[in-house]
Prior knowledge:
Transferase, Pyrimidine Nucleoside Phosphorylase, Chain A, domain 3, four-stranded antiparallel beta sheet, Barwin-like endoglucanases, globular
Amino acid sequence: MSNDTLQVRRIAIDTYHENVAYLNRDCGIYRAEGFQALSKIQISTNGTRVLAVLNVVDDASIVQPGELGLSEQAFKQLNAAEGSLVTVNHAEPPTSMDAVRRKINGEQLTQNDFIAITQDIVESRYSKMEMAAFLVATGQNGLDRDELLYLTRAMLQSGDTMNWHESLVADKHCIGGIPGNRTSMLVVPIVAAHGMLIPKTSSRAITSPAGTADTMEMFSEVNLTPDQLHAIVRKERGCLAWGGTARLAPVDDMLISVERPLGIDSQGQMVASILSKKLAAGSTHLIIDIPVGPTAKVRQMRQALALRKLFEFVGDRLNLHLEVMITDGRQPVGRGIGPVLEARDVMQVLQNDPDAPADLRQKSLLLAGRIIEFDPDVRGGQGYAIARDILESGRACEKMNAIIQAQGAKVVDLSPGSLCFEVTACCDGVVTNIDNFQMAKIARLAGAPMMKKAGVDLLKKLGAPVKQGEILYRIHAEFPADFKFAQDQALQNNGYMIGSKQDILKPLIAF
């Protein structure tokens, strides 16, 4: 080993969408080159170059002076065996930061600016601090319609795209904020049973008690390779898979890794994130679900209408047939919150169980009906009836079972966590409000989504009459610590308001 090379050492740390390198403080190269902690370095070997943020280590058991430690993501990107020799140099600062500084000053950016920024981000030239600067600049100063289009197009071009070689590829997306909203797991089998192509790639939960992928994982494998995904969709006309295995608009995932801890969720970034992912997945026709309610992500109708205009503007210019549905977001959808309980709700609807949650069934049929009306052979207004017939005939359940088998069926156990706490009504009356945010928080404290059997099982919904001491919902957990956290939170604020019928907030839309 020469004096200007280091041996690669794999450091088993998940740094979540950020390349991190580790140098011992006594390393000769560290001293000679004048590296500083958190500076960007370039790592080279056999024609491959990787950029990483430098961390300095004082413990030789982690990294010795002649070694360069790499986090899991950086090691995978370098694609070199442990012990390989690498050279390390200062990384050039990303030139696109000039555009970010111009945006901070309130200037409008061009298409080329956004392409340069997203390319530098996806090549790991930006630190998380620099990505945060970009997000704050675009969030606080806003993106006009043209900038939003430029950003969406640049994010789309940052990775791979799927091509299904069909003229109609359907999908749906809900902007989130409503617990229990597992409509995708009903829409996909209904639409696929109709014969339309609907390859649904979904995320895992980040801040919610369950994502579609977390819930589908109760029944089948969801970590599918692109080749597996294509084969399943060709055979069954649909899938319900995790989208993380395909390199679709990867810059979006990197920006989200910074947005979440900062609590940044600007409308422009959300629109660009959703549409770039859907276009990369090969969608040609898309339904966007925007729930509106006092504790939903979108709380006022004017905000929902403005958001709809943004979606429609960008979708139209990127040749995506897009329709927006504004739905009732006053309360959770279905009864279960958490993977097992939401999976139970889905199967009850698919099996036409008389105890199935009516709101989940109705919303899913409305969404599926609108997608079915994308079919040129279906007349407008007929979609709902077709979707209802597919569900009631059992064809949707058959299709779901076929998709489960194709993805790799699991042994199903839908029993909730054995630790159970019942939250009861404080007085007589009717349920006048259910706080979406609080219910999601309680379910997460109970362990969801990591603990699949954890969550909240709602027994009373808006407008339901209750007597003092009657059960409103049950908290389920698998571990005592999680159980206590959720119980304490519910005792502090159970998320329910009890009053009289006239106190019930009327829906802003017809649902």
